[in-house]
Design goal:
Layout (H helix, E strand, L loop, with lengths): L9 E4 L2 E4 L4 E4 L2 E3 L3 H11 L6 E2 H8 L8 H15 L10 E4 L3 E4 L3 E2 L23 H25 L11 E4 L3 E2 L9 H10 L6 E2 L2 H10 L10 H10 L4 E10 L2 E9 L5 E9 L5 H15 L4 H6 L4 H4 L4 H16 L2 H14 L4 H13 L3 H13 L6 H16 L2 H14 L5 H6 L2 H4 L4 H14 L4 H13 L3 H13 L5 H13 L3 H11 L8 H12 L3 H17 L3 H18 L2 H14 L3 H13 L3 H14 L4 H18 L3 H8 L22 H12 L3 H13 L1 H4 L4 H15 L3 H14 L8 H13 L1
Parallel strand pairs: 9-11, 9-12, 10-12
Antiparallel strand pairs: 1-2, 1-8, 2-3, 3-4, 5-7, 6-7, 12-13, 13-14
Helix pairs in contact: 1-3, 5-8, 5-11, 11-12, 12-13, 13-14, 13-15, 14-15, 15-16, 19-20, 20-21, 20-22, 21-22, 22-23, 22-24, 24-25, 25-26, 26-27, 26-28, 27-28, 28-29, 28-30, 29-30, 30-31, 30-32, 31-32, 32-33, 32-35, 33-35, 35-36, 36-37
């Protein structure tokens, strides 16, 4: 029997709208050119969604006058053209399914289009095969009918509730997505899909997973407990949120029913919606549409939704298995460790190499564990695929590209600021603004301000507390930095970075007990066991205890290599090469620089090695590395304004041209107090250009200028941390004061250096020089 076509000539599905009256196909409001035959095929399929339209029916209606046309070839060409316009494929169709040997079927989820006067659609006598159900299938039919009645009842019930509005405060708690299909591929997957879709709204915000975990802990529940509806409502009340969102998926015969239910914190239903998906491959489209309806239902305009609405299959991946791997990776990363998420993200990329956010998140994880080369590779690939992401995710990808690939911090800063302006309820861009994008420019007041904004939006956003503490440290406000770390600890937000920073704050405050407490707490974090020995090595080197520093640094390198943190091992080697060169141990400096470069050619490793080689008068190898940095990082803020000026100045000093060295360092003046990239994991390199300016002035016979430069190092311990130049700066002030014939000032500076190096190894070349100089002064 034939079905009666609907009196409808305008359709909407996913981001697409089809207007049969004007013959136009558009995607997110942008017109897509589609010629006559492919467009007529699309109209025919849309007029009968989910039903088979045979090849013969298409020929009779669309090629009725083409008696001499190679119909089979023309039909195949037209269908392929249609699929390209819809970004669809025959292998994994989302919209147009091929029924081999018979015809085609539209399998997408139709949405309600904008109203337009209806005109008769393309009429096709589509045959529907029917059969009387056997007794075995009867219960399936009855069950489907019962479920359908429940869906209708829920829809009717919703009409009695007032339309919700979250115009002023749209903070949502997501309960666990209910999957009653029995198919594990939907577990966690649709929850992540719901997050991606809701994050596209500039007016809604989600309570972060971290905040949910901490709230559960305060409730006396396991932090990883499944967030049932009842638990979600309690979390909603405790976090002062607006509503709980409950997603669900169930089977309806051979189809799937995707549901979304919004409830107040007290449990009152304020919104409910269900959509059907013909096949498993259409579930993501149904989820995209149901969130679109929800956003419209809570007051967002069509114009805003159209501007910030990318279907899930395009924003993430059409592969449910890839999305499941990605969803699990995010869950593992934030509940266990970043390292354990890497293989899951690699699996997601293997299943869908075009999964932009899987590449981007992998790049973020690599950056956080200190693997900048791998981070740049993954982030670059994400940037190439950024069109396959939501606008929210594109901000993250673009920011990450400038932060981790080009190194252009000004550009990264601008992207994050636009992100914060576009999504004013999102804490993430403020947290990123408070990080290295501002710290690497020396804008520490901005670091503190942006961290405060992030915390105000999400009190449990861990990186913001860490960045807040770093901002205070860079400004020598150590008590406030400790208070920021305590605020994080009180909310159970401690991470390894917090313990390392706490260790350095205690060092800067001469608090040995505080340093020991940080060391003990760090022992409970085995994934980062290489980090503390290197920090202790720096502290030992700062005191001139070189043999002990070497032993600790070797321990850090060996541990990092065993853990697979190769680049971290390299940055440790580069740091030790730098302090060996500063101490006058040229052979050891060259050895460590070569070992660092053998492990990694990462930007910061290369700079540390080049600096050490140049100090050790191996100018040829240092120049090769400097040339490589200039070639590989033409936009990089640190390379162009700190690293290359320092290396060029060192080369000029070795040629006996101190004025030329000062000229080379002039470009660094605007960023001289900025923290360098070597400060991450390595914690060395701060204020090296100031140290070189001081050396240049000494060579020019200008002791006052030299003393001012070395005094900058003494006055900014929060930028220098435990780098040995913090101690050597006192020695250099003594030398400048001697040149200025200021005996009292010189003796005071030498004595301060000797006090710092009271337990120093006696055979360090620069220490022997200092003792001889002090003896002559006395």
């Amino acid at each position: 029997m034939a079905t009666q076509p609907q009196p409808r000539y305008r359709f909407a599905f996913g981001p697409f709208e089809v207007d049969g009256y004007t013959g136009q196909l558009s995607k997110s409001g942008i017109r897509i050119r589609l010629p006559g035959q492919p467009f007529q095929i699309l109209l025919a399929l849309l007029a009968h969604p989910g039903q088979l339209v045979t090849r013969q029916q298409l020929r009779d209606r669309i090629w009725r006058d083409g008696t001499n046309v190679d119909f089979e070839h023309s039909l195949n060409v037209a269908v392929n053209r249609l699929r390209r316009a819809l970004n669809d494929s025959a292998e994994s169709p989302r919209y147009i399914e091929t029924v081999p040997g018979r015809g085609y079927r539209f399998i997408g989820v139709l949405d309600e289009p904008p109203k337009l006067q209806a005109v008769p659609p393309v009429e096709l006598p589509v045959t529907v095969e029917t059969s009387r159900p056997s007794n075995g299938k009867l219960w399936v039919v009855i069950g489907a009918a019962v479920l359908l009645i429940a869906v209708i009842a829920a829809a009717l019930s919703f009409r009695s509730h007032p339309k919700p509005s979250f115009a002023e405060k749209g903070t949502l708690v997501l309960s666990s997505f209910r999957n009653t299909t029995g198919d594990p591929v939907f577990d966690d997957t649709l929850q992540q899909g719901l997050v991606v879709q809701l994050q596209q709204s500039p007016f809604l915000s989600l309570v972060s997973e971290n905040r949910v975990r901490l709230t559960l802990r305060l409730m006396g529940r396991p932090s990883g407990q499944v967030l049932t509806s009842d638990l979600a409502r309690e979390v909603c009340e405790r976090t002062g949120s607006s509503a709980v969102i409950e997603g669900s998926i169930a089977r309806l015969g051979s189809r799937y029913v995707v549901g979304l239910n919004a409830k107040s914190c007290s449990g009152e239903t304020i919104y409910v919606e269900q959509l059907q998906a013909m096949h498993k491959e259409n579930v993501l489209d149904a989820l995209s549409q149901i969130v679109r309806k929800f956003r419209q239902g809570v007051g967002e305009s069509r114009a805003v939704i159209r501007q910030h609405d990318t279907p899930l299959a395009e924003a993430t991946t059409p592969s449910l298995d890839a999305l499941k791997a990605y969803s699990t990776a995010r869950k593992v990363a934030f509940s266990a460790s970043f390292n354990s998420a890497v293989p899951l993200l690699q699996r997601a990329i293997e299943l869908d190499p075009g999964f932009a956010m899987a590449h981007a998140f992998l790049g973020r994880i690599y950056a956080d564990i200190g693997e900048s080369v791998k981070s740049a590779e993954s982030t670059r690939r994400a940037y190439e695929l950024r069109d396959r992401a939501t606008e929210h995710e594109r901000f993250f990808i673009t920011f990450s590209y400038d932060r981790q690939v080009t190194g252009n911090l000004d550009s990264a800063l601008q992207t994050a600021e636009l992100w914060a302006h576009t999504f004013p309820r999102d804490a993430e861009p403020h947290a990123l603004l408070s990080g290295f994008s501002s710290q690497g420019l020396g804008r520490y007041e901005k670091t503190i301000a942006e961290a405060g904004k992030a915390i105000a939006l999400d009190p449990d956003i861990t990186p913001a507390y860490l960045n807040l503490a770093f901002g205070y440290v860079f400004l020598n406000r150590f008590d406030e930095a400790e208070a920021a770390l305590k605020r994080a600890a009180d909310r159970q937000l401690e991470i390894p970075d917090s313990q390392i920073l706490g260790f350095y704050i205690a060092f800067l405050k001469h608090d040995e007990d505080g340093m020991n407490r940080a060391k003990l707490r760090m022992q409970a974090m085995p994934d980062e066991e290489d980090w503390m020995p290197q920090s202790e090595a720096l502290v030992a080197a700062h005191a001139g205890r070189l043999r002990w520093a070497r032993a600790l640094s070797q321990q850090a390198v060996d541990t990092a290599q065993r853990s697979g943190h190769i680049e971290r091992a390299a940055i440790y080697r580069a740091g030790s090469a730098a302090w060996e060169a500063l101490f006058g141990n040229t052979a050891k400096a060259r050895e460590n620089a070569a070992a660092a470069m053998k492990l990694s050619n990462a930007r910061d490793v290369e700079y540390g090695a080049a600096f050490a080689l140049s100090l050790a008068h191996d100018d040829a190898r240092a120049q090769v590395l400097a040339n490589d940095l200039a070639k590989r990082f033409p936009e990089d803020t640190l390379v162009q304004f700190t690293y290359l000026p320092a290396l060029n100045a060192l080369a000029s000093l070795h040629r006996g041209r101190p004025a030329e060295a000062l000229s080379a360092l002039r470009t660094n003046l605007a960023l001289e107090l900025a923290t360098p990239g070597t400060n991450f994991f390595g914690f060395f390199g701060g204020l090296y250009p100031a140290y070189l300016r001081g050396q240049s002035y000494l060579m020019l016979g200008k002791p006052n200028g030299a003393a001012l430069e070395f005094q900058k190092i003494v006055d900014h311990p929060g930028v220098v941390f435990a780098d040995p130049i913090g101690a050597l700066a006192h020695l250099e002030i003594g030398r400048a004061s001697t040149l200025a014939q200021n005996r009292a000032g010189a003796k005071a500076a030498y004595q301060k250096f000797m006090e710092l190096w009271r337990d120093a190894d006696p055979d360090i070349p620069i220490f022997k020089q200092a003792k001889a100089e002090l003896a002559r002064l006395n």
